[in-house]
UniProtKB/TrEMBL annotation:
CDD domains: SGSH (cd16027). Gene3D superfamilies: 3.30.1120.10, Alkaline Phosphatase, subunit A. GO terms for molecular function: arylsulfatase activity; metal ion binding. Residues 899-914 have a biased composition (Basic residues). Its EC number is 3.1.6.1. This is Arylsulfatase. Residues 810-833, 885-914 are annotated as: Disordered. Residues 1-21 form the signal peptide. Keywords: Calcium, Hydrolase, Metal-binding, Signal. Belongs to the sulfatase family. It comes from the Bacteria. InterPro entries: Alkaline_phosphatase_core_sf, Sulfatase, Sulfatase_CS, Sulfatase_N.
Amino acid sequence: MRLSGITCLILVQLFVSAVSAETPRPDMVIFLSDDHTWRDSSVYGSPDIKTPNMNRLAAQGMTFNNAFVASPSCAPSRAALLTGLYPANNGAEPNHSRPRVEIKKLPAYLQELGYEVVSFGKVGHYKQTPEYGFDIARHYRYHEDIAIPKAIEWLKQRDSDRPLCLFVGTNWPHVPWPEEIGDIDPARLQVPPHHVDTPVTREWRAKYMAAIQTMDRELGQVYDVARKKLGENVFFLHTSDHGAQWPFGKWNLYDEGIRTPLIVSWPGKIKPGVRTDAMASWIDILPTLIDVAGGTPLDSIDGRSLLPVLKGETTKHREVIFTTHSGDGDNNVYPMRAARTLDGWKYIRNLHPEFRFTSHVTNARAKNGYWDSWVQKAITHPQARQKVRRYLERPDEELYQVNTDPYEQQNRVNEPEQAERLRMLRQQVDDWLAETGDQKNVYGRPQRIAAQEKPNVIMVFIDDMGWSDLSCFKGAAVKTNNIDRLADEGIRFTNFYVNSPICSPSRVALTTGQYPQRWRINSYLAQRKKNRERGLAQWLDPKAPVLARELKHAGYATGHFGKWHMGGQRDVGEAPLITRYGFDRSLTNFEGLGPRVLPLKDAYDGKPPQKHDLGSANLGHGPIRWEDRSVVTAAFVKDALNFIDQAEATGQPFYLNLWPDDVHSPFFPPEVMRDATDGSKRALYYAVLKAMDQQLGALFDRIRNDEQLKNNTLILIASDNGPETGAGLANPLRGAKTWLYEGGVRSPLIVWGPSLINPKAAGTTNNTSVLSALDLNRSLYSLTGTELPQGVQLDGEDLADTLLGKEKQSRQAPLFWRRPPDRPGTREEPNPDLAARAGKWKFYMNYDQTGIQLYDLEQDVSETRNQATQHPDLVKRLQQAVNEWNSGLPADAGDPNWRPKKKPAKTGKAKAAN
């Protein structure tokens, strides 16, 4: 017999009414805080962080001294709470993951017992909250701080006889911590002994304390309203999902990560003001609530009811607490498992000690401003360095006696007297892993600990410097002493090419190892409209392969200091930050976003200096400081030197881009040098070149004067394209910046590394090897022992042995170029549309197959004798190769067949496409 929908509804209502009549169900309120380290409250002994409402709740109920979460990151911790299952059993292992759909969740258990189960705020992991099946789920988005007043308002207005289980989740003290700290005095705060005590640490600790105060006020407000609305005997539970976003806290299996406050009040059932040493896990909360609600204890889940402990029927609960952590996206890829015993022993198994421990603490510096101060102090203070290294590098196993070593500083895993204890704990963890079916998966892409012998790399990419401007490349206008010294000790290459005659695409090629046309960047990036009109992207797609990103994953510290010009210029303010491309730190000019140093143009003519930022100051996205244009390279060098110091402090090899833009117009040398010129464009250019060389000297001296750095650092110096017409020189080459002729794309290249290059090649010039920026990129993967990006075909070739002077090989495949779409040349000197170099030959043609030119560069480096008619077969072969190459790439506005994409009809606020 089938029952109608109305009949079913009546029966359910009768069942609920019957249950309510037979067994009064207590109302329950669970108040969750977010990222609150257990000891950072007066209830748990903090000397300076006062939590009066936690104290008030503790005075009315039971405080657990040994409560633990199942995992120290938000999503898996909350999934364990709401399923009663360990992460491996519910499927929510890394942060942001979800428990399996088919698993029964906490609301369903209580709804079967007649409860209305309601959620306000962060209860599940933000937007996952409604997926758990709450009758009501509201205000669960990131720091939706109206959740608490809305929960209070809802509770005051509620009119229902159904028993209530109300979850209220505050986002405090989750970052971002508040800027306003009230009367908190950072100087008087106690910094935990395992933290690095700096003024910045104290400032951020004060912010964290202010966030805790906010959480505690909200707790008191909810507690008061709950008692008033639901009665003095309401069941009230307060706890936090894991420790705070400090080193050794969140994402860690140390007690600061997994140990949590747990306070429960239930007048008439729980004695007031008592504490228990019983060990509890967050997986025990679900069965506890079922038990409190009058339900039957469950055998199908991992959790066990705490009600006997709460009622004082027993003082023990668990003998061992097991915890797990799998990671948090690519920010934190560090799987580990742990066991914590009743007598205070903690065993941690780091499944991949070859991984570097990173997290939002180390990666999201804007939200955790204290970390840089730790690393900075580590440069000169051994104790600070030890703490920083300890956070970043972990052994395969750790063993602590937490009762006597509460901050888990003394790893006792190698003590012979602990061998039997270690064996037992290992076995317990092994058994637990087997029971839960833990696959020990790695989620995300880890950063590895680099081997000590990995070479450091400094790439100096100078803006608009001509092939013959450096005095070590026969330039006669000025002496570039610091660069010359590296050339004298290294190797000069005279057949080195960049892959575009203009800045942005040239930088894309060096950065990605691919032709820049692949990424629709074939001229300098400018205003949004102008980029679109020329068929260009607005910025380099972050999906592009980037050498720095791969090096970072291989354990390198990565920094970019200088001109970027691959997005974030003019009016394009939504471009990715430089750090999106794998750089740990950056400082750029007006051609990028993030921290910037912007130039002041001072002609020393009595007039105030003029700002030269091309709109960058209006874009936001990073702190900005203004410097005289004549010393901007010095500013880049200063930050680069600090970056090197920090890399040494953290024990990492480093990859450093130093990309000065001094010799790009406008030219503003220091006053003394300006006074020595005749004021002409060329004279000012060379004065700037000399000043730049002097400012680079501080970087080169830092490396040369440190024996360890000198013996393990490779410095490469090149120019991004030829010189601006009328400024630098590329003699005897034809053409200049923007032209595909040799003067536009041939660049000086110097490779220096005393202990890395072939000693016999030091001080020599390689006039035979043909190579390009694409090949530099590819060769640096080999030189650093770094795996190539997966699923990507780089256009460069591995010429590492040539760069080190061990061979004199050339690139095997031809090199191809396409002119910038907005640079057709002049009437007197048209710019060919397409070009190739194959062996000794340089070939040119236009899109319409006219303008064929062929030059023998070994005999005619100035490209004065067109030999196309003498070599028709070669011309045909190169013409076909160029056409095939060009046709396989996105076209731009230089191609007569290119048509702009139609802008979509406006349906609201326009969003720029990249």
